[in-house]
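ARCHIVE RECORD
Type: protein–small molecule complex
Small molecule: PBG
Source of inputs: curated submission
Record status: active
Notes field left blank by submitter.
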Amino acid sequence: MVQETRLSAADFIYPIFVTRKDAGPIEGMPGVFRYTIDGAVQAARKAEAAGVSGILLFGLPTSKDEMASRALSRDGIIPEAIRVIKGAELDLVVITDICVCSYTSHGHCGILDGETVSNDATLPLLAEMAQVHAESGVDVVAPSGMMDHQVAAIRDSLDSAGYQQVSILSYAAKYASAFYGPFRDAAGGAPQFGDRKTHQMNPANAFEALREIELDIEEGADLIMIKPALAYLDIIRQARDRWPEIPLIAYNVSGEYSMVKAAAAQEYADESTTVLEILNSIRRAGAQSIITYHALDAAHWLRNSKK
Ligand code: PBG
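STRUCTURE (tokenized, with ligand):
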């Protein structure tokens, strides 16, 4: 009766991988699939039926190059997926990832200068990618590349093109984490050399996360994200206390999902109770919504537990 935190399906955002070829299961993420556009619409319908609030789309382009050209194409996989999904008029917020790591041949999150990601050369690319998604009807764009000033660049670009209504969900505090491993296989975005430590955050830092969040709020972020979730509950709590008024989203990432799946497969852990405990802890720490690959299952478990 007096339970402090409650979970509901409406707290969840479901990530969906969209591709034109090689649709099917994702190794390392049992129960998660790469979908064609038709399959993605069906997955979105299932999410809507489960009571989930939003979907987060990731695209696998047909080709990659050094400049991530396919990320800017109006007939690219994501713009088309947005048009089809929005056309289905589902009661779901459609969010897209704004980062070029799946579109570059080298797998880095930006344009390279030698072997280094050039922050400033990447900004116009992200700004244009967001504009292309906005033209296709996306509700929210979610820049995930951790380039400095990306929120401001995207806000300017959206506003000047007349898309003031499109919101920005900023991956404000994104750590250079080992927990992204399964995702990088799923989306084909692993860096071919080096790592992401020049722009993603050092897992040992907390003050830096608050500074990153503050800058993104100043630049015009409408919602902020902390990622991963489980190893960073303290950051979620600090952000919630410091900015109680801003929507705060946590990303329960691929490695967190796969760990539970692997333990459950070995019968070392009970999947549904473990997942609901994890999701509850992320909400208790202060996140309003959770991006999770467990969204549909968790919605189902919650429904059954109330019967
Ligand atoms: C793209 C991006 C990544 C994730 C979301 N957007 C990978 C990365 O930064 O390497 C990870 C999501 C997950 O692990 O579930 N930059």
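CURATOR ANNOTATION: The longest helix spans residues 119-136.
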